[in-house]
Amino acid sequence: MLAQIVLFDGFDLLDVLAPYEVLYAGGMASGGALRVELVSAEGPREVVSGVGGVPLRATAALDPGRADLVVVPGAAGRVGEPGEVPDHDADADTGEWREDEFIPVLLGRTLNTDLPGLLKAAMDRPEATVATVCGGSLVLAMAGLLEGRYATTHHMGLDMLDATGVNAVRARVVDDGDLVTGAGVTSGLDLGLYLLERELGPRIAHAVEELFAYERRGTPWRHHGPAPVAL
């Protein structure tokens, strides 16, 4: 099984590293049943994160025909006040990341790359699962790939997610079949562990929990079972 974690300019470092370490450890615990790669839409390159400009290297291109699991992170940058509209597209002349970039601008810039088309190809492939951490679901939503689906994101982005036609759910992890989404930044740990349980079994996931001295938080939400009454 191959997992590819997507890097794009301005990505959030922990959105990538948390699921990467969990999935990598799951691969070790399963005797190599899972491999993990860092990739970009453009292919092998150094990609600058939005956390102090720390770079990671993508070692391959995102390949929706080969990846069984594609993980999309969110971005790190300025949040701004509610309703605040960025008065610039930071470094629009060069297209490069800079520290005062707004998160919606960073996420929106992915729409001008090959990433949306590659993600659509992954979502159209029945064998593949697409997962997101934090604002990664907004990347898919802004590309028009999540209309009518159930998903979550960072709590500050739920209204924006809802406005794109997504059934936004306030939960730490949301399982919508071939789409699994995580909420805030640290939910990348919970997302990774849930994916290990789902794909490789609970014993593998439990072994990684013990290794990391971390207990998964929250109940993964699925659109199944009776609806709860008001409490």
Q: Would you report the number of β strands?
A: 12
Gross morphology is: globular
Tell me the β content.
15-25%
Spans of at least 5 consecutive residues whose pLDDT stays below 50 are 81-95
Helical fraction equals 25-40%
Q: Spatial order of the strands in the main sheet?
A: 5-2-1-6-7-11-10-12
Pfam family, one: DJ-1_PfpI
Domain DJ-1/PfpI: 118-197
Protein name: DJ-1/PfpI family protein
Mind sketching the topology for me?
Layout: E1 2-6, H1 13-29, E2 35-40, E3 45-48, E4 55-58, E5 60-61, E6 69-72, H2 103-109, H3 115-124, E7 129-132, H4 136-142, E8 150-151, H5 158-163, E9 167-168, E10 173-175, E11 179-182, H6 187-200, H7 202-212, E12 221-222
Parallel strand pairs: 1-2, 1-6, 2-5, 6-7, 7-11, 8-9, 10-12
Antiparallel strand pairs: 3-4, 10-11
Helix pairs in contact: 1-6, 1-7, 6-7
Protein name: DJ-1/PfpI family protein
Domain DJ-1/PfpI: 118-197
InterPro entries: Class_I_gatase-like, DJ-1/PfpI, INH-QAR
